[in-house]
Design goal:
Layout (H helix, E strand, L loop, with lengths): L16 H10 L1 H27 L2 H12 L9 H4 L2 H8 L3 H13 L3 E4 L2 E4 L2 H10 L1
Antiparallel strand pairs: 1-2
């Protein structure tokens, strides 16, 4: 029931539901941790669905760019691993719209583009675009 896409070499591990239930029954600290994780993940997915259903193309792409420019990817040049098509899919917009909006953001000096690499120059402005888009 789960599919995974990896942009770099990865090792995946699937833990059976029964094993997790057994651990939760015997370890209340783990149970609290899993509930916190689940709640956080649920809120992220809720905001993602809200974003996709209420934002225009500019707002969707701004949100995707902010996500990929986040601290969690600071040690990886993530934009070299993500194609324009991947970026379009992540933002749920067409490839043509993605390229057009990226050029607009570059012309407005909100981002810099060199080959496949994208650098967010004005994250506050991009965040505003993400919120109002």
């Amino acid at each position: 029931p789960i599919s995974v896409v990896s942009m770099t070499r990865s090792v995946l591990c699937l833990i059976s539901k029964d094993e997790v239930k057994l651990l939760m029954d015997t370890n209340p600290i783990l149970l609290d941790t899993l509930i916190d994780w689940y709640s956080s993940d649920y809120m992220y997915l809720y905001s993602k669905i809200s974003n996709l259903s209420t934002r225009n193309s500019h707002g969707k792409l701004a949100t995707a760019l902010l996500y990929l420019a986040d601290e969690q990817f600071k040690d990886t040049n993530i934009f070299e691993l993500v194609s324009r098509k991947d970026l379009a899919d992540l933002a749920s917009i067409s490839l043509e719209s993605t390229n057009k909006i990226l050029q607009e953001l570059k012309n407005e000096r909100i981002i810099e583009i060199e080959n496949r690499n994208i650098q967010v120059v004005k994250p506050k402005l991009l965040h505003t675009l993400s919120m109002i888009g």
